[in-house]
Structure of Peptide deformylase:
Amino acid sequence: MADQHNHEHDHEHEEPEVTKVIGEVPDLSNAEARPITVVGNPVLHRECQDVTAFDAELSTLIDDMFASMYAAEGVGLAANQIGVDLKVFVYDCPDDEGVRHIGHVINPVLEEFPADRRRVLDDGHEGCLSVPTAYAELPRPAYAAVRGQDKDGNPVRVEGTGFFARCLQHETDHLYGFLYIDKLSKRDRKDALKQMAEGTPKYATVPNN
Ligand SMILES: [Zn+2]
């Protein structure tokens, strides 16, 4: 997911100071930033494969995903955004309460919204590294929880509020073949694609044939 800092609606998103960090930035000394796939590339529009091998190759993929996300100044990245057909996402994303969340989830599944929790929608704007330079308003539940595994195959559960809840939903959607623009009205989707056509990304992308 793209950072909200990079767009014109900055003033609408009040970012609290980071007072707490959950997770840590991995050692990326051997990691390589890879170019980002963009809307239209088939790998983004179908469900990715489940990860079954929790090996060194998976660790390298996660590190390269972090490197790619940081190079593109994103706050979340799914494996198919660097052309890899596997259910993996990484994040380094603030929530609305001043907590910076850093980590990865393998084979994520979004939990059903808890019945006992008030269904509050977050009205923020959203962008995606695979739809470069475009942003659109997209209401999403202001709370989300994802279950999956870590790189060693251990079960994990990650939950978040506000902007981080948006990120968890956005990245899980990617791995099932959906982009945020697929959730927009026809008109807003068209507008986002127009913004993309008129803009130039500040990071390397994979050309569509
Ligand atoms: Zn995205």
